[in-house]
Amino acid sequence: MNFYKSTAWKNKQKKILRRDEYLCQECKRYGKSTKADTVHHIIPISEDKTKRLDSHNLISLCGDCHNKMHNRVTNELSDKGLDLRSRKYPPSS
């Protein structure tokens, strides 16, 4: 079964959108109030499956911000996605 169609994901997605008050957390950083319609995995599932339902690894985004987090050609995180990851999961010193 596709993870994104699972009951566990749909329930978690609702909880994260509610937690973030249905607002895009990237737009909010810049003082904008934009409705969030997507929940993004800061560390992609392909890199760490154990974080797929971890609330700390999930963030509400609008469609535009979500698209900026991914390089749709390579299917990897874009520079913006890598920046978000380093803000949420700073490298250990």
UniProtKB/TrEMBL annotation:
It holds the Pfam family HNH. Residues 11-67 form the HNH nuclease domain. InterPro entries: HNH (IPR002711), HNH_nuc (IPR003615). Keywords: Hydrolase, Nuclease. SMART domains: HNHc. It comes from the Bacteria. One of its GO terms (cellular component) is cytosol. GO terms for molecular function: endonuclease activity; hydrolase activity; nucleic acid binding; zinc ion binding. CDD domains: HNHc. The keyword Hydrolase applies. Belongs to the HNH nuclease family. This is Putative HNH nuclease YajD. It comes from Peptoanaerobacter stomatis.
